[in-house]
Design brief:
403 residues; 15 strands; five-stranded mixed beta barrel; 17% helix
Length: 403
């Protein structure tokens, strides 16, 4: 299983966005997100997007939460709650027979600036992972839209992304993301995050539509991917576009021109921010099952209480408590004493190997960001599904205290 990320901290910590000099306004649909460490496609997660002129219609008091010092900016008209921003040009930009004039008009510059207005220019918005285009009236599960290749955006071959790449960009908030290596029949999950522990911001696109069988707007997003950096090519050929700091975040979310720019293409380069390094390590296999949940999913497997260190401790305790039991030991050879350290690309899981005796299992990359055919898609009916998990997570968060 693959195509997952983690965001298991409290709503308050998410909205404060520690480590970034950014002020977030209200959170639209905050109650629709349950913090968890195993977020899969087609489930709800928060993104940061730029406020636009229609946001007074996106949520009433029951659906949005503002920071304590943020001015109230939403209207609670019962007839307009939850409606998507209107854009007559984009609503028909990709439908058969749409005029060229309309498509050109979809890139008309937006007059609002990120730094103007009384309200904070950025808001959080809970959306469903897996983009459904604004012109679609049915949710097609066969569409693989959890990711968008940056090459398609840069080279102009954007297809379904053409009408939104200039105007509907967002940043997906997470603690880090999972990738899998395949060894024999096993899949070994690895977790990548910022070394300093700050939240990670992934470049994304969003859209909104109203399906034929619904009267409510469906807000969805996709994560933009690029080539993996040299440091992580052992794990994967692709990786998400990571926005390392507030400057990158502001550039990505500045949709005032309504166009794709050279600065955006630069942000899509493989990750190389030396001042914000990443770390990657193997984590428990249980994260591979959709619906499971545990804070240990983002902990190195060697550090888990039920992990390798605990296993060695139990073995040592067993040897100490049973001295009469015959044991078999092996004396390291000269060559093993001076064996070279393994590189990251040679990391393997010693907790079980289904390869024949004497034959080393081949380690392969799992193409998570490009081929999601192995993902077990299941619809997320909302917070109710995660009620039990939420109780456990909230207890863990409470026991941690302020971070």
């Amino acid at each position: 299983m693959c195509g997952r990320f983690s965001l298991g901290i409290s709503h308050e910590e998410i909205q404060q966005l520690h480590g970034y000099n950014v002020h977030i306004g209200e959170w639209v649909g905050r109650d629709n997100f349950v913090p968890r460490h195993n977020i899969a496609p087609r489930s709800q997660a928060p993104v940061i997007r730029r406020r636009d002129g229609n946001d007074q219609r996106t949520a009433g008091p029951s659906n949005s939460h503002s920071q304590p010092d943020a001015p109230a900016t939403t209207e609670s008209s019962a007839g307009t709650q939850g409606l998507p921003p209107t854009n007559n040009f984009e609503d028909h930009a990709d439908t058969p027979g749409a005029s060229l004039a309309n498509k050109d008009a979809s890139t008309t510059p937006v007059t609002e600036s990120m730094s103007t207005g009384n309200a904070p220019p950025l808001i959080l918005h809970t959306m469903k992972w897996g983009l459904v285009p604004h012109f679609s009236k049915h949710e097609d599960p066969s569409l693989k839209t959890i990711n968008a290749r940056c090459e398609a955006l840069i080279e102009g071959q954007a297809g379904m992304w053409a009408s939104i790449k200039g105007r509907k960009r967002c940043a997906v908030v997470c603690e880090g993301y999972y990738e899998w290596l395949k060894k024999g029949k096993e899949r070994l999950p690895h977790f990548t995050k910022h070394k300093d522990g700050r939240l990670m911001l992934l470049a994304g696109l969003w859209d909104c539509t109203v399906l034929a069988d619904s009267t409510e707007p469906l807000w969805t997003f996709t994560i933009v991917t690029t080539d993996a950096s040299k440091e992580f090519s052992w794990l994967h050929d692709r990786q998400p576009v990571i926005l390392p700091d507030e400057a990158a975040l502001e550039t990505w979310l500045d949709t005032s021109s309504g166009k794709w720019t050279a600065e955006l293409s630069t942000l899509c380069a493989p990750y190389h921010a030396a001042d914000h390094p990443l770390v990657c390590y193997q984590v428990p296999k249980e994260v591979g099952k959709i619906g499971t949940e545990s804070p240990t999913f983002i902990q190195p497997i060697q550090e888990r209480k039920d992990g390798i260190q605990a296993l060695f401790a139990k073995q040592k305790q067993g040897l100490t408590s049973s001295p009469s039991k015959p044991t078999t030991t092996s004396t390291p050879t000269a060559s093993s004493k001076h064996a070279p350290k393994r590189s990251a690309s040679e990391i393997k899981d010693d907790s079980g190997d289904d390869a024949p005796a004497g034959k080393k299992a081949k380690v392969e990359k799992v193409n998570a960001w490009e081929d999601d055919s192995d993902i077990e898609y299941i619809d997320d009916p909302g917070p109710q599904r995660h009620k039990a998990d939420a109780t456990t997570i909230h207890k863990v968060l409470a026991s941690r205290g302020p971070q």
